[in-house]
Amino acid sequence: FNINANLASRNLRTGVGDLDRLLDGQGTLTIDANRADGTITIEDARAETPLLAVNANGRVGDDTNFTFDGRLADIAPFVPGLTGSVTAQGQAETLGNGRAAITATVNAPAGTQAQITGDLADDVSDVNLSITGQAALGLANRILAPRTLSGTAEFDLGVRGRPALDALSGTVTLDGARLIAPVAGVGLRDISGAISLARSAA
């Protein structure tokens, strides 16, 4: 196949609140891609809205070399109490023997950052990934409301084997975190400790 397309949208609606926020306003989609001899070549793939921008290019096949980057202009519509942009960059490259190397970085407000390195099978049936960094605990406040968390959590995790929760292991460390539960009238300060995960169980 050979695809060369330029599309435009305005205020697309899916009925899914968070997705509609990403698609709100004027949007554009550009695709220039082809497939030959079992390899998909993406010369240019871009999607942009006022809130989101995603770019990708490269080859996917027997000689994969694929890069992507994305930027969320502001996390505030999705995470109350946090503002600022989220960026991500990554690359996949063929190692041979049916596997590809993966590297990716993510940066977000309040010191949140993550680095992902490792390799995986071409059909994603087996992965060997390390995920390290730290995350603002406030990222969970939308789920925990009306309770609120503040502080950061450092993580050093691995995903090994067939992709599933029981492939996850590693440690998550809290230092000086704070939990406020207004309905119960409870406030906890200086929460510290480490959680060890083995096959997704703490």
Overall outline: flat
Indicate the proportion of strand residues: over 45%
Q: What is the helix tally?
A: 2
Q: Work out the number of β strands.
A: 13
| Unreliable sequence segments | none
- Biggest sheet descriptor: 13 strands, antiparallel
Mean pLDDT, nearest integer?
A: 92
Quaternary organization: single chain
* C-alpha Rg (nearest Å): 20 Å
Structural class: mainly beta
Percent range of helical residues? under 10%
Topology as H/E string?
Answer: EHEEEEEEEEHEEEE
Termini Cα gap:
48 Å
Give structural notes.
With 202 residues, this protein is mainly beta. 5% of the residues lie in helices and 62% in strands. The protein contains 2 helices and 13 strands. Strands 1, 2, 3, 4, 5, 6, 7, 8, 9, 10, 11, 12 and 13 form a 13-stranded antiparallel sheet that branches. Strand 4 and strand 5 form a beta hairpin. The chain is flat, with a radius of gyration of 20 Å. The mean pLDDT is 92.
